[in-house]
Amino acid sequence: VIENGDDHDYFEKAKALIQSIISNQSTKVDSISGATFSSNGIKSAVRAALKKASSISEGDNSEELNQELSKMREENKKLNELIKTLNNKIEKLERESQNASPKAYKDGNYTGVNTYVLDVDGTERSLSVDVQISDGKIKNISVISIKPIKNGDAIFIDKAKEGTIPNIIEKNTTSVDAVSGATYTSNGIKDAVNDALKKAVNPSDNTDSKDLINKLKQSIEDKEKVEKEKKTLETENTSLKEQNTSLMSKVEELQKKIKEMTSSIPSTTKAIHENIMSTLNSVMGIEKVKTN
């Protein structure tokens, strides 16, 4: 600084404050005794410069995104609990149906279809299965078609089939866990089997049995509805996470620039130095600033 609006001796004393601000990485430092006004002017100028440097566009609102993510996590937790409750309800109704009637399902072969979206790339996939019912129980399940299939999909489809189908047959219910690493196709198979089972429900003449079977059908439909809501929520949650990651990246980059600017003032670039000095000029009445 060559010339300024303060007395030269006072301002020379106050300049020592700059090193103190750099060392503490903060403007919350004591003013220089005997040069209080100049010290406060420098601190105000640096605060103004840092505020200008750390401003974020109105569209990037980290707090709102985090609140939205928190709400979605809560909603997802509730949906998971509801799905678990519905799974238990379906299992109970299936047991009651089998006890009330010799055959909960009519013997025969039934086709079930399901369309689901792969959240990985947004591809919509159609899946159909053939479900064989024997003696009122699920005897066999075969996948008739899955399309489209892209390169690399086969390994995940086989994994889903090998892990999901035997489990459904063994437990005589679709209330089984999805296969880790092949979640979308596992759930697609379960939903397609549910579609087939709705067609296979045995319309018994027994009133109690009919009531149980209707409840079973309704429970299956309720579960399908909740799982669709969960998938939608997961897609929205993924989108928000991506936005939040992008925002955090911008904030980190900005924080890095601020740190570089405040920790290397003696050798800072001309552009950044002039930005800080121009703010000092406007706040303190400095008439002329020179950069090295």
From TrEMBL:
UniProt cross-references to InterPro entries, sorted A to Z? FMN-bd
Organism the protein comes from: Peptostreptococcus anaerobius
**Keywords, sorted A to Z:** Coiled coil
Which superkingdom?
A: Bacteria
Q: Which residues form a coiled coil?
A: 62-103, 209-264
Any one GO cellular component localisation term in the record:
membrane
FMN-binding domain sequence ranges: 1-53, 126-200
Gene3D superfamilies per the record? 3.90.1010.20
User: What Gene Ontology molecular function terms does this protein carry?
Assistant: FMN binding
Descriptive protein name? FMN-binding domain protein
